[in-house]
Amino acid sequence: MNKSTSQRLPPLKRNWWLKHRFFKLYMLREATVLPLVFFILCFLAGMVALLQGAESWQGWIAFMGSPIVLLLNLLALAASLFHAATFFVLFPRVMPLRIAGHSLPDKAIVAGQWAGVVAVALLFFWLLGRGGV
Amino acid sequence: MSTEQISTNVISTQSASTKHISVKRYLPDNSTETYWQEYDLPVDDSTSLLDALNHIKEQLDSTLSYRWSCRMAICGSCGVMVNGIPKLGCKTFLRDYEGDIRIEPLAHFPVQRDLVVDMEIFLEHLAAVKPYLIDDNPVKPYDPNAPETYQQTPEQLERYKQFANCINCGLCYSACPQFGLNPEFLGPAALTLAHRYNLDSRDNGKKQRMAELNRHDGVWSCTFVGFCSKVCPKHVDPAAAVNQGKVEAAKHTLIALFKG
Ligand code: SF4
Ligand code: FES
User: Fold this and answer.
1) Which pLDDT score, from 0 to 100, does residue B147 have?
2) Most buried pick, A133, B13, B94, B137, via CB within 10 A?
3) Cα of B91 from ligand 2 centre, angstroms
């Protein structure tokens, strides 16, 4: 088959995703990466501050406590939860799990992933609590 | 088919109401410009969009061009955009629409005339993934007196069955922005069909298909927008198939890496 014979349309314009609600939601899902990048930068700065010594660590703590940074990190938390919610529903469609020849119901896989999130969060709080004592 | 309503009607003359639809016209013999044409139609509860187009063609305006054949969501030829969303004309009912009903040819394909698009590129992409059983190493040479049948258990069938329901209507290509941005992207239905054969226990062609799948214009152009699966009239879930294909392609790359 000769590929050059069939016609091609010019590519879509950059604003293609504004045409439909479904595409806007998709772009929102993709955009959750932006506040997450901010969180990662904060986190890396914290690591660097920790290495530099007590003074810069205190500076970093103060920076993290400022309302705008708190707000942005809350936004990052919300964004990552939203992303997780959309991703968890997609997961069983991409990786259908089979046990003994039977496929697991999608709902069970989604619930399992949320259970994982809760477990990790609990572990984290427990470690944090121990560190405080 | 039993639970799904299909288009069978000639619109009766004493129908309940009238609806207004706009159709995007393109008649290259007269002009290179497209234009909107309005029609008022008698409709009842069972009037499908295809019934409506047939009514226009037969009663109001014989110059209108569109494709159809089976009128029961099997042949896949009657796809159009309804208010910007790809739909099968025979599976779309006017009772579900209030207000504006705007009919356009399928998006992302070159238009030939009115609602008729050129689907050649879609067919090329389908052919590229070798969508048929490939068996390079038959167990035994074929013996016409005692032909070996390919046996398959219900469990083995279940693995790919959903992906085998595709009717090649192309709605998913009109829904896919990545195909709209890059027509060389093999696209949802072709990648799904490739995955369907890769999952088939009777097939041995996965290696050959991987060459097409595991490249930029193959599975890796997909960003899981997921609209293809929303519009698919046969619940094939092409987005799932394409993304399962990514997992397979990644495995393929890794294995090739270790084999050196
Ligand atoms: S996957 Fe669905 S939407 Fe795409 S061509 Fe097949 S039947 Fe049509
Ligand atoms: S006419 Fe065959 S699918 Fe609609």
Assistant:
1) 73
2) B94
3) 8
Ligand 2 in contact with B78 (CB < 6 A)?
A: yes
Hey, are the CB atoms on A101 and B110 less than 8 Å from each other?
no
A7–B118 CB contact, under 8 Å: yes
Rounded to the nearest angstrom, the minimum Cα separation between B63 and chain A is 24
Q: Which residue of A has its CA nearest to B160?
A: A96
Q: A15-93 has which fold? A: 3 helical TM bundles of succinate and fumarate reductases (1.20.1300)
pLDDT by residue (tens digit) across A64-122? 999 999 999 999 999 999 999 999 999 998 888 777 777 788 889 999 999 999 999 99
pLDDT of residue A105: 87
Sketch the domain layout of chain B as residue ranges.
Answer: 17-117, 120-259
User: ∠ at Cα B52 (B46, B54), nearest 5°?
Assistant: 120
Choose the mutation target among A7, A16, A29, A109 for the interface with B, i.e. most B CBs under 10 Å. A7
H or E, element range at B43: strand B35-43
Q: Tell me which of A14, A26, A87, A93 to substitute to probe the interface with B (most B C-beta atoms closer than 10 Å).
A: A93
Three-state SS for A130?
A: helix
The answer to whether the CB of B66 is under 6 A from ligand 2 is: no
Task: For domain B17-117, give its CATH number from 3.90.190.20, 3.10.450.710, 3.10.20.30, 3.30.300.30.
Answer: 3.10.20.30
- How far is B197 from B245, CA to CA, in rounded Å? 11
pTM: 0.88
Looking at residue B14, what is its pLDDT? Answer: 55
Domain at B120-259, CATH class: mainly alpha
CA proximity to B36, closest of B23, B26, B49, B27? B23
> How many other β-carbons are positioned within 10 Å of the β-carbon of residue A129?
9
The CA distance from B241 to B236, in Å, is 9
